[in-house]
Amino acid sequence: KSAEYVYLSSMSTSALYNDQGGAEAAVEAGQESTPTSSSTGAAFGLFSADFKKNEDLKEMLESNKESLKLEAMKRVVGLIAKGKNASELFPAVVKNVASKNIELKKLVYVYLVRYAEEQQDLALLSISTFQRALKDPNQFIRASALRVLSSIRVPIIVPIMMLAIKEAAADLSPYVRKTSAHAIQKLFSLDPDQKEQLIEVIEKLLKDKSTLVAGSVVMAFEEVCPDRIDLIHKNYRKLCNLLVDVEEWGQVVIISMLTRYARTQFTSPWKENNEKTFYDSDSEEKKGQIEAKPYIMDPDHRLLLRNTKPLLQSRNTAVVMSVAQLYWHLAPKHEVSIVTKSLVRLLRSHREVQYIVLQNIATMSIQRKGMFEPFMKSFYVRSTDATHIKTLKLEILTNLANEANISTILREFQTYVKSQDKAFAAATIQAIGRCATNISEVTDTCLNGLVLLLSNRDETVVAESVVVIKKLLQTQPTQHSEIIKHMAKLFDNITVPMARASILWLMGEYCERVPKIAPDVLRKMAKTFTIEEDIVKLQTVNLAAKLYLTNSKQTKLLTQYILNLGKYDQNYDIRDRTRFIRQLIVPSEKNGALNKYARRILLAPKPAPVLESAFKDRDRYQLGTLSHSLNIKATGYQELSDWPAVAPDQSVRNVEVIEPVRN
Amino acid sequence: MIHSLFLINHTGDIFLEKHWKSVISRSVCDYFFEAKEKAVDPENVPPVLQTPHHYLITIYRGKLFFLSVIQTEVPPLFVIEFLHRVADTFQDYFGECSEVIIKDNVVTVYELLEEMLDNGFPLATESNVLKEMIRPPTILRSVVNTLTGSSNVGDTLPTGQLSNIPWRRAGVKYTNNEAYFDVIEEIDAILDKSGTTVFAEIQGVIEACVRLTGMPDLTLSFMNPRLLDDVSFHPCVRFKRWESERVLSFIPPDGNFTLMTYHVSSQNLVAIPVYVKQNISFFETGNCGRLDITIGPKQTMGKTVEGLMVTVHMPKAVLSTNLTASQGNYTYDLATKVLVWDVGKLNPQKLPNLRGSLSMQAGAPKPEENPSLNIDLKIQQLAISGLKVSRLDMYGEKYKPFKGVKYVTKAGKFQVRT
Fold it and tell me: Which residue of A80, A244, A352 is the best one to mutate when testing the B interface, meaning the one whose CB has the most B CBs within 10 A?
């Protein structure tokens, strides 16, 4: 923005302006400058060629010929599209706002909307034209006028916009009413103080029976007053019934809004939830009441589920996803699986669609393996998939693994480990680790497989295997000294810091099982300590301390040597840790108290790490949302509320005149 | 919803920007460039990115990035689907969607974008509606316009926008009334080393080209609709008739459109039309390897396999290839390491074979994994699932249209692991 500011202020003195034009502009101007512009051009000898060119455009715009004006406007729009500044043409352009030529007029509109905010005073000149157009007998002209008028972000015209919106909301043409619903959002973002008045218009438009208006007004509702659930009650059934005939984009918005609505108005169709309220209720009376009333789904709740189901067949992937999330959040558990096939179908679509759908399936498959297990093979990875697609498929396959299919999955994983995409191979190793902890039958098989990978040529594969083996050994600490010994042997050849650190930690943690090897590893580390990475140094200090406590006879001198090196290390973390460890393990006069417990502190049995999915608990966000995709709460995200324990009054949705359902 | 759109070419130049609300500086794209840098391959750039004040949702199509700037919560698929619809529209209008074409037609592009979104919310995305408002450019029309001063922009509201069938424009007239349907099936498969099918399924699509006068109401029925396991429809298809009678009943849009896509139930065994015998090996010493691929017909239902093509993404270490193809041509792209063997028609009497040696970078370790083979092929006049259209009926109009159905089977994502 600051660049723009400088540019505007220096317009008359030109220095910066020249820089913006560049060589390209000069060439263009050379071709385009006409004899008529030379007279004015001479006076501006100092100015850039670019300026001359715009002079040229200015003359064209001010000429009497329609075709010249149109040609000029096309070039101006070309400038806008390229992101070049054409704001100084504003006075010349704005004169053409009332042109009869529809294309010229539309291009002027494009220009106005782009620059009105910067040239507010001049923009006001055009307002009366729009006010006149709002009364035009042609609905298309009325709608376009409202679209532009409401897009001009000039605070002074707020009252005019308000009036125009109110009138348009009562227009006979549904297309104009749709435009007014869009204008509501524009006015709201320009001046939030108008909220109350705008809500009145929204309330009115919500009653509209046209399928054209429904999506747009719900969008306005979501932006202006998403908390005014009470406005929806009377329109709920109508919206449900219109849904199939609304255009695709409106369907997405309505479905998302109705999902939120349903969670505030109906009781939970999920059994465990009912039981919970049952046990939670402390008063005897309430308990009896609920016991007497088994769960019956509100017919309105059923209506929503029934009317959204056909939309699973939509060609629009966003519609399918929105129905899927509605079923996930609202349907009884046994009905949710009807969305599976449609979601799997979306995996045939563009890569970006796959990405979002796979993310959502990843979240779903954690809670409901059964939903996607029959389609397991649809998640097999192809070597041509993009890396983020591969990783998500792997995630889902891991979620789907169970005793019955694990051998198939592991066979598939074997192919992936060999992948040329090393980041993906590493992710596969982690996935194997997760399968191994989740399914005890295959833990040993997996562990042996990972040990084999330790002799792999690729460093990242080895490193990842070491890290995963470390985690697995922690969960199963008994009888794995063979593997630890094997890793100690490989230690010299492993260079990835994380892997070296992991092996050192394992040595220290299980030093009593490998009493001969551990001190030898420490001896080697003493030699290389100064050239190691920080995490490796920290683990070396750790190993030294643990060995000192268990086997001080052999390692006392080594430990002291390493502690001395650490004391003068460049990294303050390492210096701190060294000092702390020394105080803890080496007995002296001052520190009697903790020293006694050193062994219990350092060699305490540690809980095994839990290897879990990155998508666990992702469903705290409504599925299909941006927040779910990024796993952060995005601006403007509306929380789904928990089901109410007792359903609010159902009669609020009754409408006096019950109309026959048209479809 | 959608705040701004930037079009960026693959070298990272922003060549078009459009804002639907207040203007957002193009410096917001820097976050995207950072991610692009990190991803190396343009296909690996995450479609959804977060920046301190905005969210960026991007699609990559035809070597172009369509980057949209979002400020508040919105279903990401909504934006992605819309961006693809924009790209589809450009393709529909200009025949292709490339930087040059968009730059050449920048005014039409801008007019389209203006109509497609209002305040960032989709307004008109149906091709039939858009074409009534903004006519696609043709040479003849631009000549006429210059002479008469008329324009490409309509001044009345397209009829479709108001009716219950927004996809069809009113007043359609043809002298030759015709309706063509292409049933296109793609086989997605993964075969393992030994040729066993790891995974296979059939995805089908019915592309229609309907040029019929007036308001025809069509019914398309199948001999064996039970084959269709999962379907998705163009909005024109009446869902209830499908549910109850398994027929497609619809008032079609004018011109080309996708009527339905379907999936053939995975319970059915999928016929695999070709087998591949291959042997790729890299030697420990000597920096070289061997490659030997033979392709033969398997289940082709008596039809000819055409357009056969094998694509192999070689490991980075493969410097060059020295191969002989018994049929067709092969190329090896040194920069991308992609080997393409264009075989052509498959002759069952004389099976095509590609063999020879691969030379490797000196000192590079032997690749862990052999590259997989991607197969392309085409079989005319066959829907591999066995799906058959039985009849097409027209109601609501009196004339007799010309009707035609064509079948074709292709390889989709057809991969052989080695």
Answer: A352
